[in-house]
Amino acid sequence: MPTKYRWYSCMKWKDKRDLMMISTSHVGERGSSNKPKVVEDYNKLKGFVDQSDQLSAYSPFVRRTTKRYLRAFFHFVMQTAVVNWCRLFCDTKGTIQLNEFKMILVKTLLRDIFSEPSSPRTTHKLERSESGSKESRRTCTGCYKELREEKGRPYATNHAKKVSSRCSKCHKYFCMECFLNYHKKCV
């Protein structure tokens, strides 16, 4: 609905949102897709700054509950950086929506924090049992297995080392040497 004045015209057009424009070169004629000609020309000629502002407006980064200076920081620094990254990503890899790009970005940044530990070093640890008395000592699993294969079960039962240290994960009793051999890939 254009309103024409002496040397400019004002228009209001609604697609997804209300759009109000002032033009000195367009009177109010319609373009090919029933859009006003001024809107078509603007979309064709707009620069990256307008596109990034438009993308930022569709999916705001910070809600109104945050303090004003934080909102300004996150808008000007973070939102602008994310929109620029998305633009570079789209130029090299293909088109993607800004919200999808944000999800990929967040998952990528948090992958290292929430992933499983890459090395299982922290999973198996040799720890002393609670009470150090002779009753709490058990047969070393590695020594027993080795002696049983060489000399039989009765000999291994009587001659395997007695230890009070066990693995924190698999709860088997080991001497230090057998623990290192048994959990070679973990240590």
Automatic annotation (TrEMBL):
It comes from Haemonchus placei (Barber's pole worm). This is PiggyBac transposable element-derived protein domain-containing protein. Residues 31-84 form the PiggyBac transposable element-derived protein domain.
